Amino acid sequence: MKPILLKMCAFGPYAKETVVDFEKLGNSGIFLLTGDTGAGKTTVFDALCYALYGEASGQERDAKSFRSDYAAQKDDTYVEFTFEHNRHKYRIRRNPEYERPKKSGTGTTKQIADAVLEDMDTQQVWTGIGIVKEKVEQLIGLTRNQFTQTVMIAQGDFRKILTAASKDRIDLFRKLFNTELYEQVEKKLGDMNRQCEQEKEGLNGQIDREMEAIQLDPDFSEREVLSAYRKSGDAAHVIEVLARLVEHESGLLRELERNKKENNVRSSELIKTITQAKNDNQAFEELRALQAKLDRLVCRRSEIDDAARQVERARRASNINSAENALAVNQNTIDKWCKTMREASDALQKTGAALPDARARVEAAQAALPKADEMQAQAKQLESAVSIAEALEKNGKEYQKAQKQFARLLADVQAKEETYQRARNAFFSNQYGLIAQELQEGQPCPVCGSAVHPAPAVLAGETATQEEMESAEAALSAAKDRLHDADAQAREIKSAIETDQKRLEDAGIVGTAQEIRAQAGRMMEEAKTLRAAAGEAQARLTELEKTRERDNAIYDTAQSNVAEASDKRAKLTSEFSRLLAENGFEDRADYDAAKRSLKDVERMDADIRKYGEERKSCEDMIESLQQKLAGKQTTDVAVLETEQKALDGLLTEIEKDAKERNGRLQMNERTLKRLRDCCAKKEKKRNHWAIVSETYKVVAGQHIAPGQKSGKLHLETYVQQYYFKQVVYAANQRLRSMTDGMFTLRCKEEAANLRSQAGLDLDVFDRSTGRWRDVKTLSGGESFMASLALALGLSDVVQAGSGGIRMDSMFIDEGFGSLDENALNRALEMLASLADGKRLIGVISHVHELRERIDRKIVVRKEQNGSTIEISS
Predict the structure, then answer these.
(1) How far is the C-alpha of 615 from the C-alpha of 303, rounded, in Å?
(2) CA 760 → CA 164, 222, 371, 732, 757, distances in Å?
């Protein structure tokens, strides 16, 4: 990375845009950044570091404080840095967060921090603080902290380079020498080792679980041996004994299956014997039951014969049923019409008794009808008088209102009369007073003509104008008109009241409208009641007369029908007697005894057929069973079933034992297979695990070789130590030159303590004492020289390494003031040889000797309105 141009605006002590053109200083060599104390020398390095990383070169300065106190409010604060890297030119512009005036309106607003990076060759642009910072670190290959330890060594940071711990140097060298690969190898091996350990633990755990799952047979002779091997975790011997246990269980299971098969055959044969015995015993029982049933059927023979005779007599009696039914119907007809005659006779007697009273009621109701007409006429007259009474009541209320209105208007007229009289009197009194004021002795009075004026009129206290008098007069006239109208209206209402009162008196009607209306309603209702009574009496009489005519007709019809039915009965009785004799019945009693209902005949006939069928079936089945059981006898089945039950119990026990042993066998077979698989996997992976474990211990610094006290050197640290030794070697070439061989650096062989990591710590050899000591014990000047030598050595090694980071420039802030003249001369000679046409090295210092000896300078001057920069070459 080689600087080309730096612009600062409103940044730190620089109020206006300030430009640092590094090309004026040449492509290589040493230049000095000098000036007054507090003028802003370090700010130039801060601006360069801020442009790249968004932070100052030192730890004490915050990016938010970069806004210049000298800047005008309208000026923007920014840094723009142009540099060359790997033959590409880049320009980066960055501004911090600060308050600025609003572009429209008044007040201020916050300017957000931002950054833009541009590749000036390809025109590719990156924007945003995070994105730009990430791209810069990718381009340069250094973080901000690493940059300030190798390229731009800030004020006070030299000693950090020298005394940094191994851990901090590891992060620096990882970027400088691209040693991330070795860290990744260590991490990968660590992951592999953890995975191997997990696999080993998993297989061991599975083996332990499988051995715990083994089910032991109490009869197994090696039971105790297997338990001992399982307890000790000896999987190989467990597998051997378990295989013999499986074979033992298999042999026992085969024996159980053979016993089970033999007993199943015995059970099947016994079941057949029991079944046949039960069938024969059941047949003997059926034979005995059939014989008993046949005996009962034989005993019922006379009963069935009697039923057959009854059925035959019932069928003969059914030939006479129609004649009997005809006689019954005829008798019912006679009985019905006789009953109708009695009912009609009773009704006629009742109607005849009620007719005289009904005629008397009709005559009385007819006599009351004229009174109903008179009451209806009076009710209508009362109804017509209701409207007159209502109008009279309404006019009465209106008349009262009119009287009150008249009284109010009369009072108003009187008040306005008084007002008018006062106004008139006041007006004329004042007129007399005015005339009296104009009178002169000897001159005639215009009113009375007298030339003598002994008592002239004076002006009244109350005055009124002619307009006021006329206004009061008009108001009085209007009030009188209203009073006259009210009086006329009251007279008109009173006239209407008197007319209505006379009309009611002439009609002889007294009472309010409500009372008159109620009286009319009562009279109308009473007339209606009288008319309704007349109608009801006439209707009752008409109904009784019609009922008498109907009952007479019913009686005559019934009497005729009774005579006709009696003539028919004689013929039916003769026919019934003939049929009794014809069907073999002695008389009616014999016939009645033979009668049966159709349902009873059908039932008795079915019983007779069923009896015959049952007896025939019973006889046939007895014959068949006798043939089947010929030569056989009953068997005691209970003995056979007891034997079968015992055999079933034995089979159940065999089945249970076989199931238990089979389950145990299958479990042990699966366990044996899984144990063999796990042990095979474990044996297969054993070498791989050992190789991974040993390799990881070596690269992770955990392997302790014979003769070593500890082993804390990681693989990446080992590689970095290789580079660091080269850096120390290169640093010693310069350190010996600057110190006349007084000091020599070396890498520490062991860590500072058991918890630290060895490899990148430093010791220094002091020739004056002949002893090695920690670099932290060096004085200020000694530390500066050692740090400068170390930084330059680091730069040499990085530049020389293939694929490393290229450093075309270097910036050193202060530190030279701690050197004596000889040491300062040697340091400058060393820096000059380091530049040697390859690098541009900038030094910040206020040491006078440097200003005398370095020609190319950036001079910073502190002025009243902000600092300025001048380049002299």
Answers:
(1) 14
(2) 9, 63, 149, 16, 8
Q: Can you tell me the distance from the alpha carbon of 624 to that of 363, in angstroms, rounded to the nearest whole number?
A: 105
In this prediction the pTM is 0.43
DSSP H or E run through 683: helix 637-699
SS (H, E, C) 300-320: CHHHHHHHHHHHHHHHHHCCC
Structure tokens at 733: 């070439």
Asked if 515 and 414 touch (Cβ cutoff 8 Å), the reply is: no
Q: Helix 235-299 to helix 637-699 angle, to the nearest 10 degrees?
A: 160
pLDDT over threshold 90, residue 9: yes
Compute the distance between CA of residue 715 and CA of residue 548 in angstroms, rounded to an integer. Answer: 145
Q: What is the pLDDT of residue 754?
A: 41
Rg of the chain taking only CA atoms, in angstroms:
75
Both tokens of 357, joined, read 């009273």
Q: Which tokens sit at 504?
A: 């009611």
Which phi and psi (to 5°) does residue 773 adopt?
A: -150, 165
Rounded to a whole number of angstroms, the distance between the first and last alpha carbons of the chain is 22
Instruction: State the Cα–Cα distance between residues 555 and 567, nearest whole angstrom.
Output: 19
**Rounded-to-integer distance, Cα 113 and Cα 115, Å:** 7
Give the H or E element holding residue 745.
Answer: strand 743-747
Name the amino acid, one letter, at 252: L
pLDDT (tens digit per residue) in 309-322: 888 888 888 888 88
Contact (Cβ atoms closer than 8 angstroms) between residue 814 and residue 158: no
Q: Centre a 10 Å sphere on the Cβ of residue 197 and count the other Cβ atoms it contains.
A: 13
DSSP state of 61: -
Report the interhelical angle of 598-628 vs 235-299 (nearest 10°).
120
Decide: helix, strand or coil at residue 810: strand
